[in-house]
């Protein structure tokens, strides 16, 4: 887990190195660039907008690293541990709820350490500007939600090898309906409802609000991504609710399998 987080974070950090530093450039800097580059004011402003987009894309990569670093170990190892639980459940050692809660109690500190390493490296290398602790807790909440989804998938599949097929069916739509590649408002109407099941989009929106809070012309990015600054409590509420929903789903799936077998 440590190697996965460090390697991926370091790679993305180098790609987006210093991307947050130029975002704080003022209007006077625009005029300075206009004088020395020979570009028009509109061209310099367009360049600033592109840099804002690169800055936002860096946040998206941080969220993706956090999501996959949290879910990948769980979705690969939990199905292999499940037979041990089923054997001990059949002997009456413990029930489903204590086992599931113990897994979450173990995973939460691990994802916190992973999130701390991920954001710590990115914050320095990418020169991010947002409040570190607000960004960290957003990453932690995203990681916990990702773990709960991975556990639900692992509880639902029949064989461990099936997680490799079911996992992408859940996590790929998280990226597609996050609104990053194309705004949800431009998607076909009959597909837009799927955005409400994308926990990734809620985390990215919170990260966007926190990171661009004091950045000039932040509305250029926030409006393009349909991010509402006043809706942060709503985004947090949706993430917490999805953690609970997927956890309850995982518990019920595991209980059904244990009851069916024994």
Structure explained in plain terms:
- The protein is an all-alpha fold.
- It is built from 9 helices and no strands.
- The chain has helices at residues 2-15, 27-37, 41-90, 96-125, 132-156, 163-176, 199-211, 219-224, 232-261.
- The model has no long low-confidence stretch (mean pLDDT 83).
- Please bin the fraction of helical residues: over 70%
Q: H/E element string?
A: HHHHHHHHH
Distance between the termini: 34 Å
> What fraction of the residues are assigned to beta strands by DSSP?
under 5%
Low-pLDDT segments = none
- Say how many strands there are: 0
Largest sheet: none
Give the mean pLDDT. 83
Shape: elongated
Q: What would you report as the Rg, rounded to the nearest angstrom?
A: 21 Å
- The number of helical segments is 9
Specify the structural class: mainly alpha
Task: Give the SSE layout.
Blueprint: H1 2-15, H2 27-37, H3 41-90, H4 96-125, H5 132-156, H6 163-176, H7 199-211, H8 219-224, H9 232-261
Helix pairs in contact: 1-3, 1-4, 2-3, 3-4, 3-5, 3-7, 4-5, 5-6, 5-7, 5-9, 7-9
Quick description:
By secondary structure, the protein is mostly helical.
């Amino acid at each position: 887990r440590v190697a996965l987080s460090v390697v991926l974070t370091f790679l993305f950090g180098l790609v987006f190195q210093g991307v947050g530093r130029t975002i704080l450039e003022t209007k006077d800097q625009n005029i300075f660039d206009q004088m020395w580059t020979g570009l028009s004011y509109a061209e310099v402003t367009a360049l600033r907008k592109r840099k804002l987009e690169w800055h936002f894309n860096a946040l998206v990569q941080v969220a993706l690293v956090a999501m996959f670093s949290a879910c990948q170990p769980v979705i690969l190892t939990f199905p292999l541990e499940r037979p041990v639980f089923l054997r001990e459940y059949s002997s009456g050692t413990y029930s489903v709820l204590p086992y599931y809660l113990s897994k979450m109690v173990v995973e939460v500190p691990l994802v916190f350490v992973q999130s701390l390493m991920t954001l710590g490296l990115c914050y320095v290398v990418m020169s991010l500007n947002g409040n570190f602790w607000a960004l960290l807790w957003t990453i932690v909440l995203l990681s916990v939600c990702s773990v709960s989804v991975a556990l639900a998938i692992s509880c639902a599949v029949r064989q461990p090898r099936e997680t490799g097929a079911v996992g992408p069916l859940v996590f790929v739509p998280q990226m597609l309906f996050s609104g990053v590649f194309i705004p949800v408002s431009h998607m076909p109407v009959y597909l837009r409802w799927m955005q409400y099941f994308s926990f990734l989009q809620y985390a990215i929106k919170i990260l966007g609000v926190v990171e661009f809070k004091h950045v000039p012309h932040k509305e250029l990015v926030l409006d393009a991504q349909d991010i509402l600054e006043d809706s942060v409590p709503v985004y947090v509420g949706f993430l917490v609710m999805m953690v609970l929903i997927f956890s309850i789903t995982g518990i019920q799936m595991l209980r059904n399998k244990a009851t069916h077998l024994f």
